Amino acid sequence: MIATALTDMFGLDHPIVLGPMGGVAGGRLAAAVSNAGGLGMVGGGYGDPDWLDTELALVKAQAKRPWGVGLITWAIGDGILELALRAKPHAVMLSFGDPSPYASAIKAAGCKLICQVQDVAGAVQARKAGADVIVAQGTEGGGHGGARGTMPLVPAVIDASGSVPVVAAGGIADGRGLAAALMLGAHGALLGTRFYASREALGHDQAKQRIVNAEGEQTQRTRIFDIVRGYDWPNGYTGRALHNAFMSRWTGREDELAEQAATVSPEFWAAAGDGDYDTAMVWAGEVVDLIHKVESAGDLVAGIGAQAEEQLQRAGQLLRKP
Ligand SMILES: Cc1cc2nc3c(=O)[nH]c(=O)nc-3n(C[C@H](O)[C@H](O)[C@H](O)COP(=O)(O)O)c2cc1C
Questions:
Q1: DSSP code, position 171
Q2: Whole-prediction pTM value?
Q3: Given 20, 75, 235, 291, which is the most exposed site by the fewest CB atoms within 10 A?
Q4: Residue 224 belongs to domain spanning
């Protein structure tokens, strides 16, 4: 068993956190990860109250162990944090923006505050806000994020985070990645793309199958899906998705897409509703190379934890007496 400050904080069997993937990490997936000994997170995304109500009720009904909920900080609307806190999560994770306006309400509710950051300045800000855990998210990851690579970012964030435990995210999908994160000094790993291709994840089977079939080279960071959906992300954030025909059509023509959004958006939303992933996006990271089938989340947590233990034992065997 691997014991770290993260596993101690939440009573976990494995230092594995589910990425709060908006619209993908619903209550069923979060509960499956938590019940398997990881930390399940509901992906509250942009904060749709009806969706959150449904998924928080599910996780509450199904999870027997600690779980949390993630929100996109810059998009938190009136009443959304209060709605999330009423479900009594053990942790709230804030990503993409200054967490300080929300920190005191989260802590007053008895929740741990987890902040996902994309650079060292973000880690300093999260620490000042009173983060209990800081997630250092590298650019290899699926979905929205920044420009820094996980390998150098994680130790730099650890150096800036003092005694606050750091979790690595971006580019981790198996026990080798988890062990590497621990070797960098992290207290655990947060995985998104790997859990997207799980049975309990929300989202189309076809999207999951595309992840299984894809290679890392076919992922690309882009703004076009935010432009067409009308999401005004702050500067510096892009999303990593599987390359598709819609990206081929609009990459390099972002301004034109913004001008034509009124006509292109309805087509886009219709395609998304039909599960047409030549048009709609599948957010996914470079780890798609390591994903060969859709599995149950519980098996994933147990398998990744066991493989990390083996890797750490092997690492110990590399040492020789001179
Ligand atoms: C489909 C998908 C949706 C995501 N949505 C969110 C989100 O709403 N909020 C968030 O903080 N992170 C989101 N992320 C990022 C994850 O929290 C995490 O940082 C990332 O997946 C880690 O990299 P990996 O995909 O290589 O595991 C998303 C990732 C994916 C793949």
A1: S
A2: 0.98
A3: 235
A4: 205-273
